[in-house]
Amino acid sequence: MAASLGRVCGSGLLKASNGALFNQVSTFSTARDWAKGRKTLLACLGVATGGAGALVYALESSVKAEGVELHAPNYAWDFYGHLSSFDHASLRRGWEVYKNVCSSCHSLKYVAFRELIGVTHTEAEVKEMAAEYEIKDGPNDQGEYYMRPGKPSDYVPSPYPNEEAARAANNGAYPPDLTYIVNARHNGENYIFSLLTGYCDPPAGVVLMDGQYYNPYFPGGAIGMAQVIYDEVLDFEDGTPATASQVAKDVVSFLTWASNPEFDTRKRWFIKAVGIFTLLLTVTYYMKRHRWSTIKSRKIVFAPKK
Amino acid sequence: MLACELNPWQISLGSLVVCSAPEIYIKMAGIASTVYNVICRRSSTFALAIIAGTFVFERTFDTISNQIFDSYNKGKQWKDIKHKYEKE
């Protein structure tokens, strides 16, 4: 009998009834004994408050066109994507751009020459490159500082000895260190690419001081850095045509590497993490099913006493 | 009608009877039983198997993931272009 009852009702009898729950909850309400007028009044008040809030929000956001700087679009960088590494040929060109263009004003003082080995240059090239710089060292056994050719373990020398000297040479504007600049700006790589390629004439009414230039991507519009990237601003050693956008793309890729030198390793580990966690998840799921199988396959029936 | 004499796998809770499915034992055969007998019966071999298994797994897993990464980024990595800059 119990078996046939079970067959007719299915497991419906064992399920919690949400309808009953709802009725129970509604008896918790303190508004149940209120007069109808009071309820109506409160409902109207609620709707009015909500409406006023929505109106204020709508008015507020309709005038959100504040500010004159442009927001950089997102470009299809070749290092975007969960598995994509840097394009190291591009990084190598980017170093060329930094060295030939940016390094006359910007330091890159947290990058050591040795870090370029195996990323953009061979060891022999880096040794040669570092030796072209004169590095201040010392004190020697006479207590004097002296200049010596650079070594791979040296950090990239800065163009100015200190911030004051940098400001004095740039109309009071300080060219920031470029090592971590990509991480230090919102939407780093897209912003810097747009900044470098976005110079234009100031719109009517914008007055620039001496030594200022107009760039719609720079907050405020007036930037102390002149346009430095033009078509053919340098010749790439690998023969890539040096259009302005190519130059900007390469230097920004390089600066992205400088800010995130662990980038490629991170991508590699992403694959491993996904693989391991997929395995672990499968095992965990199997174990869960296995442990629960006895509980799930047992059956509770009603057997009335004779 | 359910009989009131309980089978061994049934537990009586007053008028409720809980029936657990009888446990099922999978009979090991062939490789599984060999592996069990040779490896799992002694802690020394078991520990050794774990160490060796870890080594083999790690090597294969790393090789496979690195191959995925390298083939996905073919031509972009330093090792793909360094031959152009290395002097003999």
UniProtKB/TrEMBL annotation, chain A:
<keyword id="KW-0249">Electron transport</keyword>
<feature type="binding site" description="covalent">
    <location>
        <position position="106"/>
    </location>
    <ligand>
        <name>heme c</name>
    </ligand>
</feature>
<feature type="binding site" description="axial binding residue">
    <location>
        <position position="225"/>
    </location>
    <ligand>
        <name>heme c</name>
    </ligand>
</feature>
<dbReference type="Pfam" id="PF02167">
    <property type="entry name" value="Cytochrom_C1"/>
</dbReference>
<keyword id="KW-0472">Membrane</keyword>
<dbReference type="GO" id="GO:0009055">
    <property type="term" value="F:electron transfer activity"/>
</dbReference>
<dbReference type="GO" id="GO:0005743">
    <property type="term" value="C:mitochondrial inner membrane"/>
</dbReference>
<keyword id="KW-0812">Transmembrane</keyword>
<dbReference type="InterPro" id="IPR002326">
    <property type="entry name" value="Cyt_c1"/>
</dbReference>
<dbReference type="GO" id="GO:0006122">
    <property type="term" value="P:mitochondrial electron transport, ubiquinol to cytochrome c"/>
</dbReference>
<feature type="transmembrane region" description="Helical">
    <location>
        <begin position="269"/>
        <end position="287"/>
    </location>
</feature>
<feature type="domain" description="Cytochrome c">
    <location>
        <begin position="89"/>
        <end position="259"/>
    </location>
</feature>
<comment type="similarity">
    <text>Belongs to the cytochrome c family.</text>
</comment>
<comment type="function">
    <text>Electron carrier protein. The oxidized form of the cytochrome c heme group can accept an electron from the heme group of the cytochrome c1 subunit of cytochrome reductase. Cytochrome c then transfers this electron to the cytochrome oxidase complex, the final protein carrier in the mitochondrial electron-transport chain.</text>
</comment>
<keyword id="KW-1133">Transmembrane helix</keyword>
<keyword id="KW-0479">Metal-binding</keyword>
<keyword id="KW-0349">Heme</keyword>
<dbReference type="InterPro" id="IPR009056">
    <property type="entry name" value="Cyt_c-like_dom"/>
</dbReference>
<comment type="subunit">
    <text>Component of the ubiquinol-cytochrome c oxidoreductase (cytochrome b-c1 complex, complex III, CIII), a multisubunit enzyme composed of 11 subunits. The complex is composed of 3 respiratory subunits cytochrome b, cytochrome c1 and Rieske protein UQCRFS1, 2 core protein subunits UQCRC1/QCR1 and UQCRC2/QCR2, and 6 low-molecular weight protein subunits UQCRH/QCR6, UQCRB/QCR7, UQCRQ/QCR8, UQCR10/QCR9, UQCR11/QCR10 and subunit 9, the cleavage product of Rieske protein UQCRFS1.</text>
</comment>
<keyword id="KW-0408">Iron</keyword>
<feature type="binding site" description="axial binding residue">
    <location>
        <position position="105"/>
    </location>
    <ligand>
        <name>heme c</name>
    </ligand>
</feature>
<dbReference type="GO" id="GO:0020037">
    <property type="term" value="F:heme binding"/>
</dbReference>
From TrEMBL, chain B:
<protein>
    <recommendedName>
        <fullName>Cytochrome b-c1 complex subunit 9</fullName>
    </recommendedName>
</protein>
<keyword id="KW-0472">Membrane</keyword>
<dbReference type="InterPro" id="IPR036656">
    <property type="entry name" value="QCR9_sf"/>
</dbReference>
<dbReference type="GO" id="GO:0006122">
    <property type="term" value="P:mitochondrial electron transport, ubiquinol to cytochrome c"/>
</dbReference>
<keyword id="KW-0813">Transport</keyword>
<keyword id="KW-0679">Respiratory chain</keyword>
<keyword id="KW-1133">Transmembrane helix</keyword>
<dbReference type="GO" id="GO:0005743">
    <property type="term" value="C:mitochondrial inner membrane"/>
</dbReference>
<dbReference type="Pfam" id="PF05365">
    <property type="entry name" value="UCR_UQCRX_QCR9"/>
</dbReference>
<dbReference type="InterPro" id="IPR008027">
    <property type="entry name" value="QCR9"/>
</dbReference>
<keyword id="KW-0249">Electron transport</keyword>
<keyword id="KW-0999">Mitochondrion inner membrane</keyword>
<keyword id="KW-0496">Mitochondrion</keyword>
<comment type="similarity">
    <text>Belongs to the UQCR10/QCR9 family.</text>
</comment>
<dbReference type="GO" id="GO:0045275">
    <property type="term" value="C:respiratory chain complex III"/>
</dbReference>
<keyword id="KW-0812">Transmembrane</keyword>
